Design the sequence.
């Protein structure tokens, strides 16, 4: 009684089960999403007020600035090299230190590498708190604590990076197949030994990939951190904005764009080699 | 190998931390009930002598995986007790349980290697219970541990792959490395959970022959879970049949009849119950 005996002879009508109707549900979900979105823009029921008229009244104002930014003033370039280098250095140092911190924390935050529910939840809770605080808040507070300069910027980046790297890596460990754990346990190993010898090398690609991602993010963020005095090219952005030098600002934005794209290309190449 | 390796014979009891001689394994009224209510093992009592080569035969879901895991404490029985040599496995917890597990080697159907790291580091897993945690953390192995691992890899013919990545090996090679990992423990008992179910027939026979050698040459007590009747007959001396968590057969493997297997399987013998010739 093999499977071949049971199949229908060629040409005969197949008994295809009726296809379930799914479109009414899709329409209902779509309608609900539209309704909720519309409701959030009605001030009478607590929604936000969106004054489309303001665009019509002010658009020439913005257009001037955009026009200035689109005609970049390249004479600012020599002044940008030093702060730009500082931004890159902050991004790199921040990513490197956060990588070192994130390795043990990721293993402690994932279920297969830390079966102890109490310590795992404690690590996850602390990191949720770290992630919940906006980076500009860290930078503002740290500038007050340790003074103006790159140090508060770097500490901000470390806190930000550890938060996201640990979350993404520990989730990767959670979802990966960890059969090698059983072998380590059967050989009489403790969790630390199993993590060090097997779980860590298994997790390297995830760790490296997320650290590279955090490096990309760092360049973007450290451009902003200067606004609150935490070093980097943001300081120059703040200065130019203060003088309404939108043409110079255009140059700086283009420069950051080039650097971010370059880092993204580099990290994509590196990530491909990790597979 | 160097001189120290040549003068140090791999006999059990060679140094203080390793197990001495083959050990008997005893299961006393062992019942395993999983949290989801499934009773995987029902009041099983068995006595396996030191140095025996035993096949545990049953279909999937018969409880043989659970039974083999109660022996090294990967599964704790809900009732009953398990004794392996001097260790009362069911009474041990924490560091004492890990030390006892260090004396019991185990290999698995899916090899359970860390694919992204080297064969060497995978085999080093076998030294865990004999290694202080700080040494493992810093990655500093003693010359003795290194020597034990190299000899274990050599004994399964995998020494030349020692620095290669475990994930790059074929299935048969992976199982050989897994055997070396277990032998690096210098165990007194070897457990094997469906060790050949993921392998092609010639490789399956080679791995079964390796297990047979481990039993004959090193004198280890070997328990191997199988679902194929011809492998049980050919390579083991005693056969224990499990069906729905209960022992339904216990006797010599070679003379077990097809009727005995039908009783274990709970259905007529089929073509797929045999692996076939080498």
Sequence:
């Amino acid at each position: 009684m093999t499977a071949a005996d049971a199949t229908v002879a060629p040409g005969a009508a197949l008994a295809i089960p009726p296809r379930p109707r799914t479109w009414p549900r899709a329409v209902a979900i779509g309608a609900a999403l539209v309704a909720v979105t519309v409701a959030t823009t009605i001030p009478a029921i607590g929604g936000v007020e969106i004054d489309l008229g303001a665009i019509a009244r002010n658009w020439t104002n913005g257009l001037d600035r955009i026009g200035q930014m689109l005609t970049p003033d390249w004479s600012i370039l020599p002044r940008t090299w030093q702060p730009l280098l500082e931004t890159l250095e902050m991004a790199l140092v921040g990513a490197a230190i956060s990588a070192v911190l994130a390795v043990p924390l990721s293993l402690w935050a994932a279920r297969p590498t830390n079966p102890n529910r109490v310590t795992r939840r404690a690590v996850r809770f602390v990191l949720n708190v770290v992630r919940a605080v906006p980076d500009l808040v860290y930078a503002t507070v740290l500038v007050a604590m340790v003074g103006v300069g790159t140090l508060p910027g770097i500490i901000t980046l470390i806190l930000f990076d550890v938060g996201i790297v640990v979350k993404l890596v520990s989730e990767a460990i959670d979802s990966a197949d960890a059969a090698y754990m059983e072998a380590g346990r059967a050989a009489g190993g403790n969790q630390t030994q199993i993590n060090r010898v097997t779980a860590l090398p298994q997790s390297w690609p995830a760790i490296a990939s997320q650290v590279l991602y955090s490096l990309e993010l760092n360049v973007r963020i450290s451009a902003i951190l200067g606004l609150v005095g935490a070093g980097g090219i943001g300081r120059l952005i703040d200065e130019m904005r203060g003088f309404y030098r939108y043409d110079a600002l255009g140059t700086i934005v283009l420069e950051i764009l080039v650097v971010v794209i370059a880092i993204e290309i580099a990290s994509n190449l590196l990530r491909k080699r990790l597979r | 190998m160097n001189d120290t390796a040549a003068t140090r014979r791999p006999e059990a009891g060679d140094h203080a931390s390793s197990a001495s001689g083959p050990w008997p394994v005893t299961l006393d009224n062992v019942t395993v009930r999983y949290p989801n209510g499934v009773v995987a093992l029902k009041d099983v009592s068995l006595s396996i002598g030191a140095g025996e080569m035993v096949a545990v035969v049953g279909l999937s879901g018969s409880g043989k995986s659970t039974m083999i895991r109660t022996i090294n404490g990967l599964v704790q029985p809900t009732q009953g007790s398990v004794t392996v040599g001097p260790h009362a496995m069911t009474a041990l917890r924490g560091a004492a349980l890990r030390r006892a597990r260090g004396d019991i080697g185990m290999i698995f159907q899916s090899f359970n290697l860390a694919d992204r790291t080297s064969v060497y580091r995978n085999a080093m897993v076998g030294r865990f219970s004999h290694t202080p945690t700080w040494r493992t953390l810093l990655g500093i192995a003693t010359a003795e541990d290194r020597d034990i691992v190299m000899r274990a890899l050599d004994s399964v013919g995998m020494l030349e792959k020692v620095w290669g990545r475990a994930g790059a090996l074929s299935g048969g090679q992976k199982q050989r490395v897994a055997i070396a990992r277990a032998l690096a423990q210098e165990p007194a008992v070897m457990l094997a959970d469906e060790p050949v179910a993921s392998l092609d027939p010639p490789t399956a026979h080679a791995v079964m022959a390796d297990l047979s050698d481990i039993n004959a040459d090193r004198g280890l007590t070997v328990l191997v879970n199988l679902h194929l009747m011809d492998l049980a007959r050919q390579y083991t001396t005693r056969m224990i049949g499990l069906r729905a968590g209960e022992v339904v057969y216990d006797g010599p493997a070679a003379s077990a009849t097809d009727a005995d297997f039908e009783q274990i399987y709970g259905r007529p013998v089929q073509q797929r119950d045999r692996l076939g010739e080498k």
Summary: The mean pLDDT of chain A is 87. The interface with chain B takes residues 179-180, 182-190, 192-194, 196-199, 201-202, 204-205 of chain A (CB under 8 Å). DSSP finds eleven helices and no strands in chain A. Residues 212 and 266 of chain A are 9 Å apart (CA to CA).
